[in-house]
Amino acid sequence: MTTYDYDLFVIGAGSGGVRAARLTALDGKRVAIAEEHRVGGTCVIRGCVPKKFMVMASEVSHALHIAEGYGWSFDNARFDWPTFLQAKDVEIARLSGIYAANLGKAGVDLIHGRAVLRDAHTVEILGKDQTITAERILIATGGRPWVPDNLPGIEHAITSEEAFHLPELPKRILIAGGGYIAVEFAGIFAGLGVETTLIYRGPNILRGFDDDVRAHLAGEIEKRGIKVILGCQHEKLEKTDTGIVNHLENGMTIETDVVMFATGRVPHVKDLGLDTAGVALNDKGAIQVDTYSKTTADNIWAIGDVTDRINLTPVAIREAVAFHQTVYRDTPTAFDYEAVASAVFSQPPVGVVGLSEAEARRSCSKGVDVYLTRFRPMKYAFTGSDERVLMKLVVDAETQRVVGVHIVGPESPEMIQLAAIAVKAGLTKAQWDATCAVHPTMAEELVTLKDKQTPANMSAG
Known about the structure:
Elements: E1 6-11, H1 15-26, E2 31-35, H2 41-46, H3 48-69, H4 81-106, E3 109-112, E4 115-119, E5 122-125, E6 130-139, E7 143-145, H5 160-163, E8 172-176, H6 180-191, E9 195-200, H7 211-223, E10 227-230, E11 234-239, E12 244-248, E13 253-256, E14 258-261, E15 265-267, H8 274-277, E16 300-302, H9 313-328, E17 342-344, E18 350-354, H10 357-363, E19 368-375, E20 389-396, E21 402-408, H11 412-425, H12 429-433
Parallel strand pairs: 1-2, 1-6, 2-3, 6-16, 8-9, 8-14, 9-10
Antiparallel strand pairs: 4-5, 5-6, 7-15, 11-12, 12-13, 17-18, 18-21, 19-20, 20-21
C-alpha cells in the first residue's frame, strides 16, 4: 500500500480551500495547504472584503448630501485616502491572520509558497526545493484579472488588485469594463470625489443581468456623476507628462490620471502542471469537473472560481463542504446552483436571485407574469433627488412560482438574501401576496405588487 505525506493537499488558501482543509483535518486526516500570496484568497485580500470597505467609505459623501436635506450641516467634511488605506490594511491583515490561525487550530500544515503539480500525487513548492506527496489533491486557486495584452499602452493601466493600494487618490479615472467589478469601482471612485468615466464595449452594463436592471442602473449611476460611454473600447493608451490619454475607437480622447481595466477574470491555471497530472480544462479554460467537483484525474478535485461555475465566495465554500461530504464522509453531495442570490455593490446597489425575465421566458413553457415598480424611496423625500428604486418579480405563469426577484436601490443586497429563501423554497405569488407588509419600508413593495406588466404599461414602468 502506497504511503503519502498527506491524505489531502490543497492548492490555494482562499475561502473554498481553507474550508475544505479545515473540515478534512478536523476529521483526523493529515492535511496541508499551500498559498503563494496571503491566506484568505481573493475575497479577503483583494476582492469582496476590501472592496466593501471602499464602498462604505465612498457612500458617506452621498449620505452627507442626504443629511443636509434633513437639516444637518457639515462645513469641513473631507476624506483622507492614506487614513482609510491604513485602517483597511490593518483589518485585512487581522482577517488573514484569523484564517491562518484557524487552519493551525484544525491541525492543517500551512505552506507559504507556490505549489505546482509534478504528477497525479506529487506537488513541488517552487523555490523551496520541497516535494510533497498526497493521496488526494484539491485545487482551489481562484481567478485573476484579465487584460487585453495586445492593447498598445496596456502597461500603463491597473486592475482591481492594484486599485486597493493606489499611493494617492487620483483626480480623474477611466474604468474599462461593464461587469460588476467595473460598476462597483466606478461608484467607489465617484463617491470619493474622483472624476469618473466608465467605458464598455457592449450595448449596456451588467451583461447577463435582467434587462430592466441593466437599463435602470445605467441611468442611476449617471445621476451619481459617472460618465458612461457604451459601445466603445480602447484603441490605445498613451502616457504623457500630465496623465494617460485614452484613445478610443470612436475617435474620442480622454485624459485621466489612472486607467483601470475591469474586463473580466479568468481561472488561475497557468503553469500549475495540470497536464502532467492528467487534469483537463474545458472550452472556457477552466478546470473541467463533474457534479461532485472531481477533475479528469482520479484523485484530484477542484472548487471555486478556478472551475468557473458560479464565481462567488459563498458558492466556493459550499462546494468545499460538498467535496468533504463526498470524499471523506462517504455521502455524495452536489451543490445546487439553482436560485443562488447575488449582489452588485454599485451605487445604488443591486440584488438579484433566480431567473431574469428573458431566461424565464425561455424556460417557462406557459409564459411569465412580470410585476415591476419604480419609485422614489422615502429616504430621499427631503433631498429633491430624482433617484428611483426598481423592484421586479418574475413569475411562472403556469405554476405561479416566483422564479426571479430583481432589486436596484438602497439595501437591496440585504433584502435579496431573505427573498432568496422564498425563491429557493418555490413559494408562489399568492404566498408572497399573503405576507403582511412592514410599513413604511421599501421591502413592502415586494409583497404589495398587484399589477402585471403589459405591453401598454411596460414603457411607463
